[in-house]
Specification:
By secondary structure, the chain is an alpha/beta fold. The protein has helices at about 15-25, 30-40, 55-65, 85, 120-125, 130-135, 170, 185-195, 200, 210-220, 225-240, 250-270, 275-285, 300-310; strands at about 45-50, 70-75, 90-95, 100-105, 110-115, 135-140, 140-145, 150-155, 175-180. Helices cover about 45% and strands about 15% of the residues. Strand 3 and strand 4 form a beta hairpin.
C-alpha cells in the first residue's frame, strides 16, 4: 500500500476547507449536501439538484461558482428554449463578409441549467455532448469548452405542471443527484431574519482560482483504492443487476463514478485512501437517479439504497 500523500493531506494544504466553511454560512443547515456537491466537482462530475422551487438550489450553484472562481453562466430552461440558445449560433458579419460564430452560454466553466426539465427533450439533449465530451458540435464544427467544465442542473419534481422527464441517457451524465429539503427550524429562523442569502452568494470573493481546481482534482485521483475496496464496489454494482428491487442495474460508468466520488469524499476527510464508509456515503447520491424501482418505475428510494448496502458484505 502506498504511503501517505504528504502535501495534499497536510493541515497547511487544505484550501478547500475554507470553501466548505464559507458555503455553509450561505446555504444554512445543509453541510452534507454541500460536501456532496463539492465531492462531485472534485471528482470532475456534473450535479443534478432536484427539489421544490425556492429551496436554495440556484443559490448553491451561485455560491460554488463564486467561491471557486469559475466563469459562470445561467441558462433558464423553458418550453420554447432551442438547442442553439444553449450552444450558440453563426451570424453573417457584413464587414468580414463571412459567418461568425457567437458562443452560447454553455461556453463557461460552470453552467447552471436552471429548471432543466421544463425544456423539451430535444433541447435537453443539447447538453449531452458538452457533459460527456467537453465540446460542442455546431453547424459541422466542433468547439472545445473551457476547462474546468461543470454543469449544475436544477429540476423541479416531475409531478409539477410543465415538466418533461429527463431521459435516462441524460440522467446518467450526472455523477450525483441531490435533494436539499426544507431547512431545520434554526436555519430557517436565521434565513428569515437575514432576508435571504442570494445576494450574499453573488458577492462572494473567490477562495480558489480555476487553475487550482484541476490540481486538486489530480490529488483526488491519487487517493488510493485497495483491491478489496474495488471488489466491494463491484459487488454493490452487481447486486443492483440481480436485485428484484430494480428494473435494471448500475452501468460500468456508474461504477467508475462511484469510485471517483468515494475518492473525493475521502480526500475531503483528509485521507489518502478510500474506506467502505466513503463508498456508502456517496452511494445514494450516485445511484438513486440511475436506478428505477421494479414496482412502478419510479426512482429508487433512500430505503432501497440502504437495503442494498445492508445486502453486500464489507470486505
Amino acid at each position: 500500500m502506498p504511503g501517505p500523500l504528504s502535501s495534499p493531506f497536510s493541515p497547511q494544504a487544505r484550501p478547500f476547507d475554507a470553501v466548505l466553511a464559507r458555503a455553509e454560512q450561505i446555504i444554512l443547515g445543509k453541510p452534507a449536501q454541500i460536501r456532496l456537491a463539492a465531492a462531485c466537482m472534485l471528482a470532475g462530475g456534473h450535479l443534478l439538484i432536484e427539489d421544490l422551487p425556492g429551496m436554495g438550489k440556484t443559490t448553491l450553484a451561485h455560491t460554488l461558482a463564486h467561491l471557486l472562481g469559475l466563469r459562470f453562466s445561467r441558462i433558464q430552461f423553458t418550453s420554447d428554449l432551442l438547442p442553439a440558445d444553449i450552444t450558440g449560433v453563426s451570424i453573417f458579419d457584413r464587414e468580414r463578409n463571412d459567418f461568425r460564430f457567437i458562443p452560447g452560454p454553455v461556453f463557461a466553466q460552470l453552467v447552471l441549467a436552471d429548471e432543466i426539465n421544463r425544456a423539451t427533450p430535444k433541447t435537453q439533449s443539447a447538453l449531452l455532448e458538452a457533459m460527456e465530451e467537453g465540446q460542442v458540435t455546431s453547424e459541422g464544427e466542433t468547439r472545445t469548452l473551457p476547462t474546468p467544465f461543470f454543469v449544475i442542473a436544477t429540476q423541479n419534481p416531475a409531478h409539477q405542471i410543465g415538466t418533461f422527464p429527463l431521459p435516462e441517457s441524460q440522467l446518467d451524465r450526472f455523477l450525483m443527484r441531490l435533494e436539499l429539503g426544507y431547512p431545520d427550524r434554526s436555519a430557517e429562523r436565521t434565513l428569515l431574519a437575514s432576508g435571504g442569502r442570494r445576494r450574499e452568494a453573488e458577492e462572494q470573493l473567490a477562495l480558489l482560482t480555476p487553475d487550482e481546481l484541476p490540481a486538486l482534482q489530480r490529488e483526488v485521483e491519487a487517493v488510493h483504492v485497495a483491491e478489496p475496496l474495488i471488489d466491494y464496489v463491484q459487488a454493490l454494482v452487481e447486486a443492483t443487476r440481480h436485485s428484484p428491487t430494480f428494473q435494471h442495474g448500475l452501468s460500468p460508468r456508474a461504477g467508475l463514478g462511484l469510485l471517483a466520488a468515494a475518492r473525493a469524499w475521502a480526500w475531503l476527510a483528509g485521507r489518502d485512501m478510500v474506506i467502505p464508509d466513503d463508498v456508502q456515503a456517496v452511494l445514494p447520491a450516485v445511484a438513486r437517479h440511475r436506478l428505477r424501482s421494479a414496482q412502478g418505475g419510479s426512482a429508487a428510494t433512500a430505503e432501497d439504497i440502504a437495503a442494498l448496502i445492508r445486502s453486500v458484505a464489507i470486505p
